Amino acid sequence: MAPLATVIIPARKGKAAFARKGQHVRVINTHGNQVVDTWAFNRAELGEFMSMEHTRAQTTKMFWAVGDALLTNHRRPILTIVADTSPGIHDSLLAACDRYRYELLGCKTYHDNCTDNLHNAMAELSLREPETPSPWNLFMNIPVLDSKRIDFLPTVSKPGDYIEVRAEMDCVVAFSACPQDLIPINGGTPVEAHFAVFDPH
Questions:
Q1: d(CA 6, CA 26)
Q2: Which of 2, 16, 149, 154 is 20 to 30 A distant from 43 in Cα terms?
Q3: pLDDT, tens digit, for every residue of 163-200?
Q4: Residue 37 placed within a domain
């Protein structure tokens, strides 16, 4: 396969792209410390989208691995994991950060956030998502403690680690290089990440 033509997800911002059924999408943790909020929408009907809740119910897992399919809110596969060079720690519990999250953390002025990043990335494709689904937070390290509590820890990925999925329908994939800098999930400093959409053969 020829070298991938990757797209930058700028630090603290978002990007979206179209993926046809059968194409692969690779998300690269370029520097190793960056969380990438990830969404997928049915291209023909944006009201159908990748759902963490529905996928957890089907797989009975919180952490997915190669071979696992991620389902939509209509309980249909939209992405299937085909490769993961990271330790496999990707959060499926937390909502995307938003202005209200940062206000609660003490911000008095506007703070970049994943919810707005999703909207702006979709707008670049002349699309508008009907809502902000809970994202698949790639590389995000949110351990469950004592089966009751969660913690917010830095990623455990290395520079260049990637996860690769196959599109199971024509879809729109969207990403946010999470701008969280008030808790340590990005090692304190949000940076850019990369992705590529490509035909596997």
A1: 9
A2: 2
A3: 999 999 999 999 999 999 999 999 889 999 999 999 99
A4: yes
The domain containing residue 158 runs over which residues?
7-198
- The answer to whether residue 1 sits within a structural domain is no
Q: Which residue has the tokens 């990005």?
A: 186
Closest to 180 in 3D by CA, of 128, 145, 137:
137
Cα–Cα distance for residue pair 158/168, rounded to 1 Å = 28
Cα–Cα distance between 98 and 176 in angstroms, integer?
12
Number of domains in the chain: 1
CB atoms inside a 10 Å sphere around CB 177: 27
Give the integer Cα–Cα distance in Å for 33 and 156: 7
- 28 is written with which tokens? 């690269």
How many other C-beta atoms are found inside a 10 Å radius of the C-beta of residue 24?
Answer: 21
**Is there a domain that residue 116 lies in?**
yes
Q: Which residues of the chain have pLDDT under 50?
A: none
